[in-house]
Amino acid sequence: MKRIFMVTVICCFVLGASLSVGQTASRQSSKKSSCNVGDTAFVCPKGFKPLPVESEQKFSLLFRKEYGLGLFVASPESGFDEQKFMSDVTKTILVKIFPKELQSFAWKPLRFSGAVSKFEVGGGMAQGFNGTLSVLVKYRHLKFKDKDILVGYVAEFGRGAEAKESFERGLGGDSMPACNASVEVIYSITGEKIDENNPPCTLVAPAG
What we know:
By secondary structure, this protein is α+β, with helices and mostly antiparallel strands. It folds into two domains: 1-31; 33-190, Protein Transport Mog1p, Chain A (3-Layer(aba) Sandwich), CATH 3.40.1000.
């Protein structure tokens, strides 16, 4: 009887330890990985892979291959030239995520959708076409703790005849994966929460 009792106690101890380890691992795996640009930390959205960019570019780039989607977070210096900065960011990302594509794009501005953060002070959106590939570029400009932060993306938006027609007609659109990832990054910086009754990306049509 004593031996049976000891075996039972040992089994319970091992089982309890296993459950404790499993719960710890579960908690650890549920934690989001963190990325940063300068001294600004943000959540790395699931499914995105960091791509290296030159340090002087002052932005971080994350790539999601299945959507042809490059997500960026930038922290430019105060007084920066926003138009030039975004032109440089866009060119760099296009080379990084579409290295085999012709890099000569024609551009059309698109109507920018409403703000998703109370810290937004601007932004922009455009559609590009290089003769075969159409892309969308969209970014949001935040002013948070006296810092300028830009969060946005470059995403594939079709190829061939349909892409050409979409560009010529200026139809534009948006990307659900890009919208969700952008909001996740923005809120991880600002501490804002998603309004479950009015989520910011609900009515966004997926690109591609």
